[in-house]
Design brief:
elongated; mainly alpha; 190 residues; DEAL/Modifying_wall_lignin1/2; 8% strand; 5 helices
Length: 190
Amino acid sequence: MGEGKGSTLVHLLVVVLSLVAFGFAIAAERRRSIGHIEKDLTNATYCVYNSDVATGYGVGAFLFLLSSESLLMGVTKCMCFGRPLAPGGNRAWSIIYFVSSWLTFLVAEACLIAGAVKNAYHTKYRGMIYAQNFSCETLRKGVFVAGAVFVVATMVLNVYYYMYFSKATAPQAAQKANRTSSNVGMAGYA
């Protein structure tokens, strides 16, 4: 890793994969399914939907964000395995960013997959028209946008997590933590 900076390739891959996931989430929001009511010959109503491409975009965003998180957790060994972190501020910040990035990751993935599933759900027949307030089930606006916002938050937190993780596992940080003698006098009283 070299002097606590971390690998530039890992930083670049995490950012690129997250930005692709962000792009897919925005594209999914712009291409949500919209339905309108049609009547057939027997006076039964049914919903006709436009393109279902937003479901694919939502799943694509889900998978790109998952690959970004998996890459980072594989490189850092999920902070649980591998070299221990040196005590100090870098370890504290890496733990804070680790937990925060996982929380935003889970929220982003939940928004993206829930949006994709809800967008794929289409109401078929509504029955005979006896009321004027029939509507076709569609995905609420903003679900994919919320996922996109959390994708960006996850990306930022992951970059900071990797930066502080690299500093906490650097050889210099480990040498500072493992001092051979203490500066505090521990002589006994006689």
